[in-house]
Amino acid sequence: MSMKFSVAAILFLSLILGACSKSQPLVSFQENDLYGYKDKHGKTKIAAQYVQAYDFNENGVGFAFGKEGWVCIDPQNNVLLHPFPFDNGPDDFIEGLARFVEGKKFGFFDPSCKKVIPASYDFAYPVQQGFAIVCNGCSLVKEEEHSRIQGGKYGLIDRTGKVVLPVEYDSISDVDPNTSSVEVIQGDSKKAIRLP
């Protein structure tokens, strides 16, 4: 047997065994109007206890709604974080990040429910063009089925949590993708700031 063939055969066998040993995501099931999770063989892994549940994603986490509101859980039903509820579900991932709430503060997490940006803001808007507008001293005001942000000071962070503009402005516009700039208002002064 040639050396090239032996190496190729070993690599092929390793790939097959690796694919077979890879764990399959859990899928939700319904029982008595509640949801739980089963494995690929139909064995219950998490008993039915949630009002709503999404199948586990390829990163091995699931999103479910229950007594604690929306949660991100692992296969042992440990709560990893509380995603910000948006539009009757957990916050959407935009540019690979979604928002979570911890102690009434906002931060960002990735699709494996790893906290990427700590929860340190009173509110955070979704990431747009690589940046997120954040505020402190602001509050959510309920208006019928939606809420709006009121008061506070605003700043801008990048996708890693680095502060690009300090939280000191009365307002910040969305990032203009054509000019890579934002318009800020501070008191009576309005100006455009180019972003790095």
UniProtKB/TrEMBL annotation:
Organism of origin: Leptospira langatensis
PANTHER family: DUF3298 DOMAIN-CONTAINING PROTEIN, GLR2918 PROTEIN
Keyword Phosphoprotein among UniProt keywords: no
Keyword vocabulary terms for this entry: Signal
Name of protein: WG repeat-containing protein
Listed Pfam families: WG_beta_rep
Domain of life: Bacteria
Keyword Signal: yes
PROSITE patterns, sorted: PROKAR_LIPOPROTEIN (PS51257)
Signal peptide region: 1-19
